[in-house]
Amino acid sequence: MTTTPTVDVHAHVLLPEVEALVAGLPGLAEAKALDARRNGPAALAVSGPMVRERIPRLTDVSVRLAAMDAQGVDVQLVSPSPSHYHHWTGEGTSEKVYRLANEATAAHCSTAPDRLKGLGLAPLHHPGQAVEALRHALDQGLLGVEISSHAPGRELSDPAYEPFWTCAEEAGAIVFLHPFGCTLDERLDQWYLSNTVGQPTENAVALSHLIFSGVLDRHPGLKVIAAHGGGYLPTHIGRSDHAWSARSDAGADCAHPPSSYLRRLYFDSLVHDPHVLRELVRAAGADRVLLGSDYPFDMGTEDPVGALRAARLPEPDFHAVRGGNAAALLFEE
To answer: H/E element holding 101?
Structure first.
């Protein structure tokens, strides 16, 4: 059991090529202004230096591998920084962004292919491009794509994404659900609430759209990994179950109680509380939780295995989350 590799499914790469591509384009300044309003000046004053200090860890493979060794991590599933979504871009630029992101991530991982597996990007703001973006990512040797919790004017329940879900299911591709920004906007612009409250909220809303709309009924083979332990949803799923059973509108479009769908999803372990992690394992099942660190950002953990050990799971469950589940997902034939 202990010979199973330790696999971290939540780790990021920064792609300067993508930022160079969009630099100076119409729409970028407005997008940055929105991001500034959502986060607030105090958060930006901390986040800028934090990211700059971590650029070697985000871009240099040798630094990444040394950090993995120090953490006891054998394999990382590397996804682009969510700052690369650029949901403001037109179709032409959007295609250039996802192609460059896919190719650059694949190149980064190719320098240590036994230890680094990668995900590309799918542009939710142009649903018609999502399928070709996923296929392009797979053509680069990546295992799937990272997506946000929504795009402007569209939720994950939008019928326009049906071809994408179909393609991901048929290809056996991984879809990593990782929010960027929160539509609560200036309500969260102090004390870094934009992240501490915003990210778990976005996760819960996005997953609820997948569940209540019937996406997971129509595509039972989807391999969706939710970052940040799925946010607030797994620990508050009883309220969803109650609504599903008590109200005709809540239960109109999904066939089963919402809690049952947790066992069709995957969740990373990054919840920052051993008691919450134990509850996540109870709610979703020990076979649906995967080790995650959010490497190398400050809202992650420097010791993902230690954080997992603190939950005091039964030893078989500990090893399943540490790497067994992810190894089966990433390396299955």
So the answer is: helix 91-110
Contact 103, 56 (CB under 8 A): no
Q: Which three-class secondary structure string do you get for 141-177?
A: CCCEEEECCEECCEECCCHHHHHHHHHHHHHCCEEEE
Give 6's DSSP letter: P
Share in percent of the chain as helix, strand, coil (round to 5): 55, 10, 30
pTM above 0.85, yes or no: yes
The range of the structural domain enclosing residue 170 comes to 7-331
The edge-to-edge listing of strands for the beta sheet with 7-13 is 7-13, 75-80, 116-118
Question: Taking a C-beta distance cutoff of 8 angstroms, is the pair 97, 89 a contact?
Answer: yes
* Domain harbouring 266, CATH code: 3.20.20.140
**Sheet strands side by side (includes 144-147):** 120-121, 144-147, 174-177, 223-226, 266-268, 289-290
Q: How does pLDDT run across 220-242, given as a tens digit for each residue? A: 999 999 999 999 999 999 999 99
Domain total of the chain? 1
* Helical ranges in the chain per DSSP H: 16-22, 28-39, 41-53, 55-59, 61-71, 91-110, 127-139, 162-171, 193-196, 198-212, 215-218, 237-246, 258-261, 274-284, 304-309, 315-319, 325-331
